[in-house]
Amino acid sequence: MTKLFSSMILLSSLLSGCATQAVLWQDQARQVSDQRSMLPQQWPQAEQAQEQEQAQEQVQENSIASLLKLINIPELETLVATALKNNPTVQQAYIALKSAQISIDSKQADQLPEVNAGLSTGKAELSSASTQTTESSSLSISWELDVWQKLANRTQSAVLDEASAAEEHRAAQASLSSTVIKRYLKLIAAQQQYNVEVKRSELLLSNQDIIIERYRAGLTSLNDLESTRSDYASTLADLAALDEALNQDKRALAILIGENSQFTTLGLGDQLPLLLPQVITPIAQTPVDSIGNRPDIKAALLNIESADKLTRAAYKDMLPSFSISAGLSASDLLFGDPLWSLLGNLTAPLYQGGALQAAADQQALSAEYAYWSYRETLLTAIQEIENSMGNDSSLQLQQKYQQQALDSAKTAEQNYRLRYSQGLVDILDLLNVQQTRFSAETTLIQINVNLLTNRIDLGLALGLGV
């Protein structure tokens, strides 16, 4: 009776410890559910987003759920599909997903009975100096009863890990797709900037012809010609640098896609589009919905749940375990009366130097780490969305004013060319105005590509995938 009473006290204390831990972990779980209080009621640019949505009603529906739907370039679908197939990072995420799926089978197997077969042979020396060969075989079955559901907790954790790996795989796919799209847009912009330098060089050659004609007419000196030739040589040097940079960008895109091949084999042809395409501005939903669409947020939440299951299982390891085992002589089953035994076992860990407690506490810290990792991911997601929305508004204003600056520069260039032909200004004044015009055009190209790539970043931040 005393032994039974002592066992009950021990069991109660173990259960109490697990219950205390469960209460503490439930409090932390409630903190996770309360993270909605960290989200803004609405995005800072909500009113502007509504105006954009009304302006884009004919081009965009609220159901857009793919980054490729933001931009209408059929060749990009081929690029993205090839990248998803060959990119090492995405393939590593896919292998992690398959590994997580296999882990589920392993954890489920722990809940099933275990069957083992044995076969042994031996020789014995008899008194008559002869030997006798002996053979025996056995069959044993053992099954741990999952009374406390700790095996079920570990299986549930494996299922959650598989779901988290699926979200991480989706995040890797979305990140790769956005990178391919942005790099392609930057290639078009780089080609446009190269074309601007070509036009600059052609104009400088034209200026040389004008200067020579004016020199023959006695209206100018050869100093003007040397100034133009100097600018022309500098432009040729810039062209050589831009050409090589463009080729390197093409090779980088090929590597990103996973094919170390020529750019023309990627289904893009020899020429890039002359103009940057239109990219639809993604419409942000409510903060809760926008954040909830992101695969990294979903994966972080699943990691918390998985760590919770493992923490519960770790504390349950300190509770008694129940198992059933059966043994059977296979030879007797075949050739005689079978002999079998059935045992029920109750084992409880009494002292292991604090190893089980340390393992459980370590797992609890891992669960807390998962919580703080989720919190960091959440704050980063909010920042990414707000930054991308703010950048979109700022870049649209920059685009507007830079276009005005370019228009004014073009007008000034026309006026100075006319006045130079009339001998009213010198060549340096004309060259300065032309430099201003080309610089304004190059700056506008950079602002345009920044605006378009930022919209891809905004779509990615809002949880759009492939």
Description:
The protein is an alpha+beta fold and 466 residues long. It has helices at residues 2-33, 46-55, 74-86, 88-109, 150-216, 222-257, 287-292, 295-316, 330-335, 355-421, 427-461; strands at residues 114-125, 131-145, 321-329, 340-347. The radius of gyration is 37 Å and the shape is elongated. It starts with a helix and ends in a 5-residue tail after the last helix. Mean pLDDT is 78; it is low at 1-25 and 51-63.
Which helices and strands, and how do they pair?
Layout: H1 2-33, H2 46-55, H3 74-86, H4 88-109, E1 114-125, E2 131-145, H5 150-216, H6 222-257, H7 287-292, H8 295-316, E3 321-329, H9 330-335, E4 340-347, H10 355-421, H11 427-461
Antiparallel strand pairs: 1-2, 2-3, 3-4
DSSP strand count: 4
Summarize the main sheet: 4 strands, antiparallel
Decide which structural class fits the backbone.
Answer: alpha+beta
Helix content: 55-70%
Approximate strand percentage: 5-15%
Q: Which descriptors apply to this entry?
A:
about 10% strand, disordered N terminus, alpha+beta, elongated, about 475 residues, 4-stranded antiparallel β-sheet
Q: What is this structure, in a nutshell?
A:
With 466 residues, the chain is α+β, with helices and mostly antiparallel strands. Helices cover 68% and strands 9% of the residues.
